[in-house]
Write a structure and sequence with these properties.
Blueprint (H helix, E strand, L loop, with lengths): L4 H9 L4 H13 L6 E4 L1 E2 L2 E3 L3 H14 L5 E6 L9 H9 L7 H8 L2 H9 L6 H11 L8 H13 L15 E5 L2 E4 H12 L5 E7 L5 H19 L2 E7 L7 E2 L17 E2 L7 H5 L5 E5 L10 H29 L6 H14 L13 H12 L3 E8 L7 E6 L5 E6 L9 H8 L3 E2 L3 E5 L20 E7 L2 E7 L12 E6 L23
Parallel strand pairs: 2-3, 3-19, 4-7, 4-11, 7-8, 12-19
Antiparallel strand pairs: 1-13, 5-6, 9-10, 11-16, 12-15, 12-16, 13-14, 17-18
Length: 517
């Protein structure tokens, strides 16, 4: 690719190597590489399901040992609230109360989310304030027809003058209303973390945010700090980071030539949540809980949710101890063949990792090196909920390029559904990935792993997007819990669906799981 000197300067200014841009262009040319799913992970075959007694044992193990570790909660929170209100945007552009009744419009478009919104929008935590703005900016508000009032209230929610929620990061949108108190998703994450990631009266949280919104998060934290401290008795340490511009990816036209803006500059897009592996890699912690910003529960449910976080944490600490013990033994040159075989069985049975077919004929030194390589990796325990129709990724047993199999979280877009066999496997999936992870990111000698070494770059994904009305092809880096963690050791554990309460649209706030009745 012949880049101009101005192109090269633009690339260097972003901190990206020219060779990396050339590699990205090769990916566009080759297209998406579908993964080879061997089977859907199910209970008893890739997903562990624990009895109440076992859950209590794991919780106790976590509570007894968590003070030995530096624990941190990591929350991707750079997303804007725009998508939450997408259907409302369309409504405001299409609906004219002077020419049509709202009931007829809703019947015509048949949108469940929009119907739920207007049936119950007075239950939204920001409804009352929106009405006040609508009245303030419309002196004749009381005399208007109901449909016109609903339009004005909705505009007051989304725009300025008003609450201007469309310009908020999703984490700072009010999610719950407790009497006169309104709590954002950001605030709910603090209460939640206090219940399971607190160590010696302190609690560390890290939010990845967009740079333009960092000050808003800091202001919100200062506003709520006193009441959160008073309610929890915990001292919080909250830190932030941005998605590094050097993780942006170049966009191309349909013919895979670089897409250019109206100013004839190269166009770069954020590389997706997979770029956040860089942010995670820069943190110093032993144990990291990962959860999306929009997945929080109301206060009456938070104890139950935190209970299962402790189950996952207990499983991680227990399994990590076992991995470390085996790795210490592998450093012993006098390890017996029987002990080597026991470690291989541990890999197969506890980590669901298949061994090399020729493992039995390897020399002793080769066996030790192989087992060390497989064991000395970051470890994650991932909660999985029963699939109830939510879109997104799921747990699968994947056949890797080297012929071995491992547990992976795979998005539907990564699966070749045109392949009858692959599609059949995908349809047999019983569980869904709610992004509920607890991770061990240090090795058995106490050193932080370089997480970049465990990314599978082949799991990047090409998506169709637009810019200034023109179509383009965008490259998303391997997802944070997908290809970015493909070479981690992975365990799946079933957790109740009640622990998964995402807010993808504003209407989700009207579901019973987010209402205070």
């Amino acid at each position: 690719m012949n880049f101009t000197q101005a192109d090269i300067q633009q690339i260097e200014n972003k901190g990206i190597a020219l060779s990396e841009i050339e590699e990205q262009l090769k990916i566009f040319s080759r297209g998406n590489l579908p993964v080879n799913i061997a089977a859907a992970a199910t209970v008893g075959d890739g997903i562990k399901q624990y009895s109440e007694a076992r859950q209590q044992e794991l919780k106790k193990f976590y509570e007894d040992h968590k003070s030995e570790y530096k624990i941190l909660k990591f929350v991707p929170a750079s997303g804007a609230a725009t998508r939450m209100f997408k259907a409302i945007h369309v409504f405001l552009n299409e609906f004219d109360p002077e020419r049509e009744e709202l009931s007829n419009y809703l019947k015509k478009i048949d949108n469940d989310n929009l119907n739920r919104f207007f049936r119950n929008f007075e239950k939204l935590p920001f409804f009352k304030e929106s009405v006040e703005f609508a009245k303030k900016d419309n002196s004749n508000f009381a005399d208007l027809a109901d449909d016109k009032k609903k339009v004005l209230i909705t505009k007051a929610m989304l725009f300025s003058p008003g609450l201007d929620l469309c310009d908020h990061p999703k984490g700072l949108v009010p999610f719950h209303k407790y009497g006169d108190l309104i709590a954002t998703a950001f605030e709910e994450h603090l209460y939640e973390a206090a219940l399971y990631s607190e160590v010696n009266g302190e609690c560390d949280l890290h939010f990845t945010v967009s740079e333009e919104h960092k000050e808003k998060f800091e202001n919100e934290y200062n506003r709520i700090l006193e009441r959160v401290n008073k309610k929890t008795g915990i001292n919080f340490k909250v830190t932030y980071s941005y998605q590094n511009p050097k993780t942006d990816t170049i966009a191309v036209n349909k013919d895979n030539t670089p897409f250019r803006t109206v100013d004839n500059e190269l166009f770069f897009r954020p590389g997706g949540h997979g770029a956040l592996i860089e942010n995670l890699n820069n943190l110093d912690a032993d144990v990291v809980f990962i959860k999306n910003i929009d997945n929080v529960v109301k206060s009456s449910e938070v104890d139950n949710m935190a209970s299962f976080k402790k189950v996952l944490g207990g499983k991680l600490l227990l399994l990590q101890d076992q991995c470390f013990e085996h790795l210490i033994n592998l450093d012993n040159p006098n390890l017996s063949d029987e002990e080597l075989e026991q470690i291989k069985v541990f890999l197969n049975e506890k980590l669901n990792l298949s061994s090399k077919e020729d493992f039995s004929i390897l020399s002793k030194d080769e066996k030790i090196k192989y087992l060390q390589d497989k064991l000395n990796r970051p470890l994650r325990v991932c909660g999985m909920v029963k699939n109830e129709g939510e879109p997104g990724g799921g747990p699968f047993l994947v056949k890797m390029e080297n012929g071995e199999r491992s547990l992976q979280i795979i998005e539907s877009a990564q699966i070749d559904t045109k392949d009858i066999h692959q599609n059949e496997i995908a349809q047999n999936a019983t569980h869904f990935n709610p992004v509920d992870l607890v991770c061990g990111i240090k090795d058995y000698q106490g050193n932080l792993f370089d997480l970049n070494l465990f990314v599978d770059p082949t799991m990047s994904f090409i998506a169709e997007k637009t810019k200034d009305g023109k179509p383009l092809r965008a490259l998303e880096r391997p997802g944070l819990w997908n290809g970015a963690m493909a070479k981690w050791n992975t365990v799946f554990v079933e957790v109740p669906v009640q622990t998964f309460n995402p807010v993808k649209t504003v209407s989700d706030l009207l579901k019973a799981s987010h209402q205070m009745q």
